[in-house]
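Good day; I would like, with your permission, to put a structural problem before you. What I wish to show you is a protein chain and, alongside it, a tokenised description of its three-dimensional fold. Please examine both parts with care and let me know of anything in them that strikes you as inconsistent. Thank you for your consideration; the sequence and its tokens are set out here:

***
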Amino acid sequence: MAELLTHSPLSLFIVQAVLIIAVARGLGLLARRGGQPMVIAEVAAGIMLGPSLLGWLWPAAKATVFPKESLALLQIFSQVGLVLFMFLIGLELDPKVLRGRGRAALLISQAGIVVPFALGALLAFVLRGALLTAGVPLSSFMMFVGTSMCITAFPVLARILSERRMMQTKVGAISITSAAIGDVTAWCLLAFVVSTVLARGTGGAVRTVALTALYITLMFVVVRPFMRRFGALASSREGLTQDVVAGTFLLLLGSSWATEVIGIHALFGAFVLGVIIPREGGFATLLTDKLEDFVVVFLLPMFFAYSGLRTQIGLLDSGHAWVLCALIVAVACAGKFGGSLVAARLCGLGWRESATIGVLMNARGLMELIVLNIGLDLGVISPTLFTMLVLMALATTLMTTPLLQLFYRPEEVPHGLGELPEPAAPPVDRFCVLVCVSYTGAGPGMLKVSETLVRRTPEQSRVYALKLQRPTDRPSFYLDAGPGARQSESSLEPLLEQAEGQKLQVKPIAFVSAQPARDICNVAEVKGADLVLLGWHRPLFNRAALGGTVSQVLSEAATTVGVLVDRGLKTIERVLVPFHGTEHDRAALRLAQRMATQSGISITVLHVVKPGQLPASEVQGLSREMTELFHEPGSPGGEVAVNVVEHADPAAAALIEAASDQPMPYDLVLIGLGADWGLEQRQFGINQEYFIRKCRVSLLVLRAPESGKASRPRSAKASLATPS
């Protein structure tokens, strides 16, 4: 087996890449379930594949898959990945973000640099006897440890803010701006520290600083105007052709080479080029789309694995070493969290808001690992200190989400969804439908159902189209709260155009959601929805007909929920309502009555009773009573027929009637959720999908809210008192 893996460097690298990506993505699924960012999983995957776990549990496997001679190739890929990633970070960091955010962001960002740098330098001085490598100047050691304490994980912070819908809040705006300013400052500080370490003397350091200043001047004065014209050409006339991409790569490699030669590391050159590329015309966005997935999914895990192979937790082989590691974590938190908190408090923010900003600024993640690997490559820090600082980066990132839940109390729904408050006495005919669009194929059918429910009273009724954008692992997705919403609303445009053609007024709602079921229920409550309408599709990896998010909404919503199983629904003129007496069946009757009075639709109620359950006189009386419920003064003349049939299997009786085409085929079946219809809801979804599988007519499966769970009182008309 070992010979198959190592018979060529290429085959070994392929095995390494498969293992690295698989472990990182697998742990990523667990991290998301725990509300943690993907970087936690990637760092953990790297440590697991290194000597700290795999090398400890199975040394032979680690030596076979990651032999020392193969690490050079892995290092090259990780360095290329970092160069491209820093270029992407520069692309995503719009300089406009750094302006116009006020004194608070500037003060917090600089406090988040000065305080942790000072504490880190002091800590390095205290630890010099235990952790200072022989031959390393104390000043370089102190400056590097201080710099490593200053980093904030800008991409991780952006994702957390977007997932929690904090981007447009005061706390979110100050945090993301402070992190942007702080990281720019920290990277400039790192460039100075690297130049000082490599220069090995005052004269060399002055020369490096002078060349760096010249380089930055040339980039902003000469290269930036050229990139504006270059970007305008790419975005307006020819598009992002391969020649344009090739030219961009040449500039990227040239900029990285220049900073490497100057002595401030190639990553700084990649970052600066990304910053100066224009955002106008979509050039930066197109470049990001071209590169980001490949860099994040393939190249960055190589860097994490390489870092993990260099992280040797076994070096912390004494209680004293672990005490020093805990001290490093404590100092890192005190500097970043404490400095940001105090600065925010001095700017007039409350204690809870200030603590939230401190927690967010304390997250380090990937950016910290980049700095630490630079320090280890330069020999400024030892493998032992490198391991301690990696654990510090992991701990400070890991604690961000739970501490944020402790200090920050978010609203349950995005800002602005409440709009105007509902009137104290809503109109009798008021009806609100929340159409949840997860994929475009379900949109037309759900619009048709909504239109039949509000046709007569459009002024008193409301129809909302809700599009939830699931979070992604792409950092650029999170750096502005707007793009996620704009992408979602643009995906609603075909639906809104169809609604306009039907003269149906639909109001769009779109935002990023990490918990779609919860957010659907929250929006329904805020809007006072009478019906939450979901489109059905079979979930991937789930055999249940109505599993996943649909099942969660069915279980948790405080209003009636309908799941449309669209089998080519074009028009709604004849509707079948199977009835067996449950609360869900009554919800179907209420909706059918609404359709009949609003749109004049022909309704057939199929009341199925067990053989011999009711005498003939009661059957006739029941039929007459239910028919009268559908006839109200001034309602359209839709036909209503009530058929009371005896059958041992209600679902079979309903399927027979649904398949009938006399006098005309049925367009839609309104059916309540329940075991009688082969739609029994269980803890992990609806496992029995008998009716859905067998019925060839479009279905609207309805679930009534639990008793006492309704979000608001219904009107007298909506509270249809059907017989049991």
User: Anything to note?
Assistant: The mean pLDDT is 80.
